[in-house]
Amino acid sequence: MAVRDQLTSATAELMRRYGVAGTGVADILKQSGVARRSIYLNFPGGKAELVCATTRTSGAAITAIMRKLMRAPDPIGAFAEMWSSVLVDSDFDAGCPVVAAALGRHSAPEATDVAVEVFEDWRAVSAERLVADGVDPQLADSLAITIVAAIEGAVIMAQAERSTRPLLEVAARLNDLVAAHLPASSPRVPGDA
Question: What's the rounded Cα separation, in Å, for the pair 174 and 72?
Answer without folding.
Answer: 15
